[in-house]
Amino acid sequence: MDSLIPFTTSGSLVDCVDRKMMVVLRDGRKLIGVLRSYDQFANLVLEDTVERIYHADVFAERWQGLYLIRGENVVLLGEIDLDQEDDVPLRQVEWNTLEPYHKEDIAAKKHREEYKANVLYEQRGFCKEGGEGDGY
């Protein structure tokens, strides 16, 4: 009966080692690299890592190399399908070209979140979250 229970601990990452993965972090960054190692806290080691940013129908990448990620900062971890990776209808541009637009997108999102939190606080009595919203 126990074998039917899904394995939901960090041990379930064993099948992901040596595969190309995308990791979305709590601060919104998206990293793509080959998962080389992990531990019981889901701390990850990515090799040949790039940071990717998006805006509209374009993207840019910046080389990061070997990357150690603390497990509590991981929001999402997913495998990149190598067969379909090149079929994505996005155009790659230089990082310096796209970075100002990406920063504008981040600032606009932050403004929307602050406005929403303020409305919830003033009209509905919800407390305002502090920092990154981790609720500690």
From TrEMBL:
Keywords: Cytoplasm, mRNA processing, Ribonucleoprotein, RNA-binding
InterPro entries in the record: Lsm1, LSM_dom_sf, PTHR15588, Sm, Sm_dom_euk/arc
Entry's family note: Belongs to the snRNP Sm proteins family.
Membrane-spanning segments: none
Keyword Nucleotide-binding included in the entry's annotation: no
GO molecular function annotation: mRNA binding
Subunit field text: Component of the heptameric LSM1-LSM7 complex that forms a seven-membered ring structure with a donut shape.
A Pfam family annotated for this UniProt entry: LSM
Organism: Gloeophyllum trabeum (strain ATCC 11539 / FP-39264 / Madison 617) (Brown rot fungus)
Gene Ontology BP terms: deadenylation-dependent decapping of nuclear-transcribed mRNA; mRNA processing
Protein name: U6 snRNA-associated Sm-like protein LSm1
PROSITE patterns: SM (PS52002)
Signal peptide: none
Subcellular location(s) per record: Cytoplasm; Cytoplasm, P-body
One Gene Ontology cellular component: Lsm1-7-Pat1 complex
Domain Sm as annotated: residue spans: 8-83
Function: Component of the cytoplasmic LSM1-LSM7 complex which is involved in mRNA degradation.
Gene3D superfamilies in the record: 2.30.30.100
CDD domains: LSm1
